Structure prediction request, 80 residues.
Amino acid sequence: VCNGNYGRTDWRGINELVTNNGYVVSSVAKLNDYFLDGTDDALRTYVCCHEIGHGLGLGHTDEGIYNADLGECMDYTIRP
Prediction:
């Protein structure tokens, strides 16, 4: 996991995943301090869990941010 100020992007976190023949070769989770500086630990933990999940090959369980929170980090939510 790498965090840094990556500027005004469209992401708070992103995962750079490399695969070969369906296997994960490498994964780097990046947390964007441009958006996360000054936020609480809950949001930072949620974003970190979400991006590590992608690194393990997990997809989004739900991409609607205004519906019910599923209570896990692969769900998009406005309330981590």
The chain has a mean pLDDT of 91. The chain has two helices and three strands.
